[in-house]
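Suppose a colleague, Dr. K., hands you the sequence of a protein chain of 171 amino acids and asks what its three-dimensional shape might be. Before reaching for any lab equipment, you can write down a predicted structure in token form. Begin with the sequence itself:
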Amino acid sequence: SECKECGIGSMALDHLSCVACEAGKSQKSPGSKHCNNCVYGKYSFPAGSSECRDCPVGKFQANESQSECHSCPKGRYTSHGLSGLGHHVCNICPSGQFMDIEGHVFDSTKSRIECKLCEGGKVSDDNRTRCETVKFDMHEELSTKRNNLWLSSAKAAKNKANRKSKTLIPD
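The predicted structure, expressed as tokens, is then:
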């Protein structure tokens, strides 16, 4: 009996039979004895794929050997325009910005993140999924901290001046 060379997207089980690479794996060389795992940020579907593809913008894949990519959650985005670099993480929107939809994209051709800006007087929550009105208590707390810092600085300066004057003018 003759040996059989397996085509792309498959691997040799033995000298006589071939099997398609399962989804999440690929093979672009005919006659191979194994299939390659898709790396982070890439996927393959269906079974028998000759190569793994980059996750599309707005989607990511954090694991190897996967058959699909997932949408970035609200408050996060992937970068657009990074050809050849599959998306394996989603970046969080910057402070003061938010994203209330899944699968959002950063468009490098516009050189800016397209997360939405919070309106005046509002800040983004920790997950960057919405904006919140700054509570008066927060302003009061910041004001108190600033005042205490100023008072301690003023006291330190006064004490330093008093020490200098004591050393210059004896009692």
